[in-house]
Amino acid sequence: MEPENMPTAPEMAKIVSLCQRRGFIFQSSEIYGGLSSCWDYGPLGVELKRNIKEAWWRANVIQRDDVAGIDSSILMHPKVWEASGHIQGFSDPLVECKACNQRFRADHVWVLAVKDAGHDVQGYISTLEPADLIRKAVDFSNRLPEHLRVAESEQAKRFGKKDLLQNLTSEIAKIPCPACEVVGKLTEPRQFNLMFKTHMGPVEEQANVVYMRPETAQGIFVNFQNVLNSTRKKLPFGIAQIGKAFRNEITTGNFIFRSREFEQMEIEFFVKPGTEEEWLNYWLERRLKWYVDLGIKAESLRLRKHQERELAHYAKACYDVEFVFPMGWAELEGIASRGNFDLTQHANASGKDLSYYDEESKEHYLPFVIEPSAGVDRSVLAFLCGAYAEEPDKDETRVVLHLHPNLAPVKVAVLPLSRKDPLVEMAKDVQVNLRTLFPTQYDDAQSIGRRYRRQDEIGTPLCVTVDFQSLEDNQVTIRDRDSMSQIRIPVAVLVETVFKKLGGEDFLTLPPGGSVVKVEKE
Ligand code: GAP
Q1: Distance between alpha carbon 375 and the CA centroid of its chain, in Å?
Q2: How far apart are CA 517 and CA 522, in angstroms?
Q3: What is the model's pTM?
Q4: Partners of 26 in beta bridges
Q5: Tens-of-pLDDT digits for all 522 residues of the chain?
Q6: What stretch of H or E contains 448?
Q7: Binding site membership of 214 for ligand 1 (Cβ less than 6 Å)
Q8: What domains sit in the chain, N to C, each tagged with a CATH number?
């Protein structure tokens, strides 16, 4: 896409400030100076995050017959990570500057060497995933003076990332330290595993080491047979999971975009070998649609196909769903066609038969898998950025989050025009009535204009105003966040009207005890 046609995103500082000010997201352990790259979700943030997970679960588990959900433990047998390749391969090469003792990712250092070329290197680096780094490092290196260029050798083409990094290694001595700029002080890169380690039981010894899972996916693979046997599902079918993952990331930043503790929403969709391309296309379309249905503009999303040299050796194809974040296009979700690598690895390492018996063809085989893997926190950031707007409102500017009603933390605010007694009583009654079905907020502080602004800023779709006239005619005013238009309706039809305005049948709310609400007409 041409730069002038690039969709725009709000400044990150504005999103961070709104999140802190209104209670969406806080720095972890803030009163102690904060813990780097860990974040706490406040009263509104926790609701937004829950709503995103609920919408994902509803679309991918509840509304489908061919996907079942699980919730596996964060701590798993260490052999899981040996078999999956995470102990060996899940590591970043680091270099250390002997002059200032700071550590950097080797491939980042390489990219930093192009800062003289006038690129916004900091913004650029912070958006990169490891696979992306290689592609960009090579692109950028082609613009460097001859002696600093990465030779994209035949070997690198054939074997990808690792060999390319070895080429980078030989060049690193010529590159100045990104922090102190001293040349020749960067060490050889050494591997640094991204998994957090801890110990199980009272004795801290090597034999007791367990890892905090760096992805939820392996909990799905090791439960493949359990789910198959207990649900009697037939291919194609998927297993879905939402849960925490931990990575000791070296480069973090851009708020909640890349942190050390985060949540994933993953599906492993098992298919008959030979049908994987069709299912990959299905999931690409389906996942893009999910974001668009929840209010993200289609032009703010794009699919980036991984080049062959970026692919893990077992992957057949991989796409990133990219979103235009404040720092530029960056990965929101990965969708990969992983062959039967994971099931093969776990079958071999555990000695258990993980094959599927196909009754139609009367054969046993290990299914192939399509993996849509989304980040919850990145989705929170994307939905916040996509919804954020500054709009004229009379002589001033209002900040508004145009969040989809299903995602908005508060659905309806109840605003009495005065704090005088009979009005308060009526307003409280209205709130109690609405609260049985919709998350509400009661606000009687300051002018009505200011209260509308506060609700706009947190994305509340509807405000219900109770005024002195309401005491006489039993009617209230509903104000719409997006159009700012107002209608007056009888209290008797308030719940039904609010339900319709929030999307009717498409509105997702889970009242105590139950399934999705359907309000009967009076
Ligand atoms: N099982 C495949 C897998 O984990 P991934 O691309 O490493 O693939 C999937 O991660 C998604 O998880 C990413 O697209 C991103 O949304 C999210 N994610 C990964 N690392 C993250 C981090 N450090 N902080 C926040 N989200 C992260």
Answers
A1: 3
A2: 15
A3: 0.84
A4: 40
A5: 445 567 788 999 999 999 999 999 999 999 999 998 999 999 999 999 999 999 999 999 999 999 999 999 999 999 999 999 888 766 666 777 888 777 776 666 665 554 443 444 444 444 444 445 555 555 544 443 343 344 443 333 433 444 445 555 555 666 677 777 787 788 776 767 789 999 998 887 877 899 999 999 999 999 999 999 999 899 999 999 999 999 988 767 799 999 999 999 999 999 999 999 999 999 999 999 999 999 999 999 999 998 765 677 678 899 999 999 999 999 999 999 999 999 999 999 999 999 999 999 999 999 999 999 999 999 999 999 999 999 998 889 999 999 999 999 999 999 999 998 899 999 999 999 999 999 999 999 999 999 999 999 999 999 999 999 999 999 999 999 999 999 999 999 999 999 999 988 777 654 433 344 333 433
A6: helix 448-458
A7: no
A8: 12-79+206-385 (3.30.930.10), 91-193 (3.30.40.230), 410-517 (3.40.50.800)
How far apart are the CA of 374 and the centre of ligand 1, in A?
Answer: 7
| Residues 6 or more apart in contact with residue 94 via CB below 8 angstroms | 103, 104, 105, 106, 189, 190, 191, 192, 250
Q: Is 451 in the pocket of ligand 1 (CB under 6 A)?
A: no
Helices (H) and strands (E) in the chain, counts: 18, 23
Q: Is the minimum distance from the CB of 375 to ligand 1 under 6 angstroms? A: yes
Look at ligand 1, atom 14, and give the residue with the nearest C-alpha. 333
